[in-house]
Design goal:
One of its GO terms (molecular function) is acyltransferase activity, transferring groups other than amino-acyl groups. This is GNAT family N-acetyltransferase. It comes from Auraticoccus cholistanensis. By secondary structure, this protein is α+β, with helices and mostly antiparallel strands. It has one domain: Gcn5-related N-acetyltransferase (GNAT) (Aminopeptidase). The chain has 8 helices and 7 strands, in the order βααααββαβαβαββα. It is globular. Bound molecules: coenzyme A. The site of coenzyme A has 20 residues, from β4, α6 and α7.
Length: 174
């Protein structure tokens, strides 16, 4: 498996699986219009936090890595700068169920802790998105929050959500 930063030319391959209804049901932003997807995918703020993973030279999924400051008291703000990363993930349904997304997320988490040196990695999902929170648990994340009807789904209305996290020391102890 190869994991690399996304480039604008990845948009059509990513659109091929992101436009699938089963994928679109859970992701934050969904369109079935290829041109709209190209524009969204290529926007610098989105492209800059997107990676893709390839198997045998074919893009099979994408990942989000969004680094931010942790909350802190003002006097120690420098220590919290860039201390957290939120991750997100998607896989082409044709490649699901084999552990590929898990492998990609494990590699990305290793990069977050070992290369970026972050303190904490987080992820969020709708509580009904079992495949996503099972992935979080497979990679060692803890369920930290259970939100009650706090996340608005485009067709289902207000749904429960889960928040997961793992600390650098928990990652190293695994
Ligand atoms: C979330 C998502 C990436 C999970 O995909 P996935 O295929 O379940 O994840 P993996 O590729 O890691 O495969 C893991 C599954 O394969 C199984 N598996 C088979 N061989 C495996 C192996 N060698 N290693 C690990 N898992 C393996 C696992 O048991 C697991 O299935 P289970 O959850 O039923 O037990 C996928 O459902 C998806 O893209 N959903 C739509 C987008 C989305 O929801 N994104 C997240 C928004 S919060």
């Amino acid at each position: 498996m190869l994991i690399r930063p996304a480039v604008p030319d990845d948009h059509s391959r990513v659109f091929a699986y992101r436009s699938d209804v089963s994928v679109g049901h859970w992701i934050a932003r969904w369109t079935t219009d290829p041109e709209e997807h190209r524009e969204q995918f290529s926007a610098p703020e989105r492209l800059g936090r997107t990676l893709v993973y390839e198997l045998g030279g074919r893009v099979v999924g994408d990942l989000m890595l969004a680094q931010s400051d942790a909350w802190s008291q003002v006097e120690v703000a420098a220590g919290a700068a860039g201390a957290e990363v939120e991750l997100g993930w998607t896989i082409d349904p044709a490649y699901a169920g084999r552990g590929l997304a898990t492998e990609a997320v494990r590699e990305l988490m290793a990069a977050c802790f070992d290369d970026l040196g972050v303190h904490r990695v987080t992820a969020h999902c709708f509580a009904e998105n079992r495949a996503s929170w099972r992935l979080m648990e497979r990679v060692g994340m803890r369920r930290e929050s259970e939100g009650r009807r706090d996340a608005l789904h485009r067709s289902r209305g207000w749904l429960d959500s889960y928040g997961y996290a793992i600390l650098a020391e928990e990652w190293r102890a695994r």
